Amino acid sequence: MAKLRVRYQTIEFGSTDIHIRSLRDNQEFSDDKGEAEALGISSASWPLFGIVWPSGEVLAQLMVDYAIGEKRILEVGCGIALASLVLNHRQANITATDYHPEVEGFLIENAELNQDKIIPFIRTGWNDPISDLGLFDVIIGSDLLYESEHVDLLSEFINQHAAPHCDIILVDPGRGHHAKFSKKMVSLGYSHSQRKPEIEIKTSQIFSGQILTYSR
Questions:
Q1: In the beta sheet, which residues pair with residue 74?
Q2: For the chain, what percent of residues have pLDDT higher than 70?
Q3: Whose CA is closest to 201, among 52, 69, 99, 94?
Q4: Closest alpha carbon to 130 in 157, 151, 150, 149
Q5: Secondary structure E strands in 24-92
Q6: Cα(61)–Cα(126) distance, rounded to whole angstroms?
Q7: For the chain, which terminus, N or C, has the lower number of CB atoms within 10 Å?
Q8: Are strands 93-98 and 72-75 parallel, antiparallel or unpaired?
């Protein structure tokens, strides 16, 4: 198996630089032990976790001046976890989750690259049995609704880990499922709003989606 090729980049957030080790591109693949295959992750979808996507960058920008206070924050489907790295650099109480077996290794290295503490990470899927993650005051995520089946899985996972008073912030690039997801969240007792971001993406990629917010 060919060695993974990676790239290093620095993304500026105001006066803060966040250093990222990511996959070189979305053609990289390495699953020598068959861990990803055993989890149902195909070779085509394997590299998606390791790229800085526009949605992830928008979410990270939102977290630059988000009022963290003493809030317990969860990033769902974190991938390369740019938003978590920004929050961690701000010394927020952030926990990250993802289904991919390679995410934790990149997360540890990237926290170290930024000379920050290691971010607590749990590898879990949205349809896994009830986890011991606990409840969170804020839940964030980006580009999560790939398939129609994700509407129910993600909404139930979020609801399982949302504190009685919780804010949810999701950045969606427009894959066609967010309307059904919002309807499901409203049925679970959350208020809903959405807006176009007024954010400059530093990597010069195009984002034409929505920022979805839910609260209860």
A1: 95, 139
A2: 97
A3: 52
A4: 157
A5: 72-75
A6: 25
A7: N
A8: parallel
pTM: 0.95
Q: Torsions phi, psi of 21, nearest 5?
A: -105, 115
Output b/e per residue, 114-129; b: 16+ Cβ within 10 A: bebeebebeebbbeee
Which residue, 36, 43, 143, is CA-closest to 100? 36
pLDDT, averaged across the chain: 93
Cα separations in angstroms, 62 against 2, 8, 86, 123, 173: 37, 22, 10, 24, 15
Under the banding of pLDDT at 50, 70 and 90, the label for residue 40 is confident
Task: Say how far apart CA 151 and CA 45 lie, in whole Å.
Answer: 19
**Residue 116: which residues within 8 A CB-CB, separation 6 or more?**
85, 88, 89
Q: Rounded distance, CA 100 to CA 134, Å?
A: 21
Q: What Rg value do the Cα atoms of the chain yield, rounded?
A: 16
Q: What does 147-201 look like in DSSP terms, one character per residue? A: STTHHHHHHHHHHHHEEEEEEEEEEE---S-HHHHHHHHHHTT-EEEEE------
Pick from 79, 76, 81: nearest CA to 49: 79
Residue 144 has which token pair? 């999560």
Beta-bridged to residue 98, according to DSSP, are 123
d(CA 176, CA 67): 30
